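Course assignment 3, question 2. Fill in each field.
Student: A.L.
Task: Predict the tertiary structure for the chain below.
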Amino acid sequence: MARQFTAHFHWELSRPITTNHLLSVISLTNTFMIMANASFSSSKFEYNRRLIRKLSRQNSSSPGSGNTPVKESTIVENENDAKIRQQQIHDAWQLIGALHCVLMPDLIKSPFLKRPLVDLLARRWQDRCIEIRQAAQDLLLSELKSIGSKGRRLIVEKWSLYLPSRRRQATAIVLMGVIGSVYGSEIESNKTTINTTNRLDPNDLQPPQPVRRRSVIDGFGGGGNYNLARKTSKALSYLLLAPPSNSLPYHTSLRRASIDLIGRGFVVWEPYLDVSKILLALLEFCCSTDTEQSMVPSLKFGLPLTPAADSARTARYALQMIAEARP
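Answer field:
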């Protein structure tokens, strides 16, 4: 009964419980994947590895003592075993994360499954904790993909009503920004293909062919309607360029979310943005803090980034995505 509850019934209680449980599990797997020997079982390999290192340090520090010498081949063999086990542990945590993030609905196959709440995931899009932030982003993108074009259209119809109003406006902006960034670009270009096996011929140079993406949502290019793309881009631009105030501090999660989403969907927002102002604002975020002194200690010891360093990091990634979209 307990196994059935954890495997099936637990995911049928309520949507908030499912959302928070998935966030917890995936954020923990993200944390354990970057840790060394993150296992709950006592490892003989780990004990042997520590013993070999201790004995090798003793032999190197006091070669004339009576300590028993440790064979170099034994040390190398134990080190290789430790590396293999570390990779196995990393792969196991990665599999657990993929199971809960992507594969769980297909494996449970229950009509009573409570899906994650997209609005709760949107509020965590730029959480202070990087692992929770990454888990929320992965879960939201996976959920938007799994519900299909019809489900995404229903979300847009529900949350686009909150864009002009102040009630739940921040959540609506993030949701519209995510959907527009991922599913809002109507036309993509294939990369130019060149036949390099023979002599270069002008006929081998194929011009970019427009490829229409499927499931483009109305308002982001579907049916020639770009109204939602324009409104969302204006909202993201305002959040980025607005001067700091009590309601919108300079380094806040909502402003970081706008920075991230502008970079992700720059191709969609570009026609409605003042590109020069956007780029200058992003560069200012990158240069407004000493990133080397603020980021390196926190990332090295697993501590949360300072708000200024987090904004600089997000702005740098946004500029990188813009450069890749518009080289």
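Instructor remarks: Residues 1-60+71-117 form one domain. The first helix runs from residue 2 to 7.
Grade: pending
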